[in-house]
Design brief:
By secondary structure, the protein is mainly α. It has 1 helix and no strands.
């Protein structure tokens, strides 16, 4: 009878240890998910900033003859020579 009680206690102690290990692993996984989400948000923000900057650059270049998205010589303001002729 004492043997059974001792084995039951040991079994419960092992289950408790296993539970703590699993709990720690779950907490670590949640921390990883939070870090990945933070990184995704950061990359999304950076990509948005770069896209905005690129559009502003395109808009400014479009003011110059031949530097727009679809260059057509002679249709711009004539302030800058075309790269092809330089």
């Amino acid at each position: 009878s004492d043997d059974k009680v001792a084995r039951a206690r040991e079994s419960l102690k092992q289950r408790q240890k296993d539970t703590h290990v699993l709990k720690d692993r779950i907490q670590s996984a949640f921390a990883s998910i939070r870090e990945i989400r933070r990184m995704i948000d950061e990359v999304d923000d950076e990509e948005s900033t770069v896209a905005s900057q690129l559009q502003r650059l395109r808009d400014e270049l479009a003011d110059f003859d031949g530097f727009g998205p679809d260059p057509e010589p002679g249709k711009g303001k004539g302030k800058v020579a075309h790269l092809k002729s330089v």
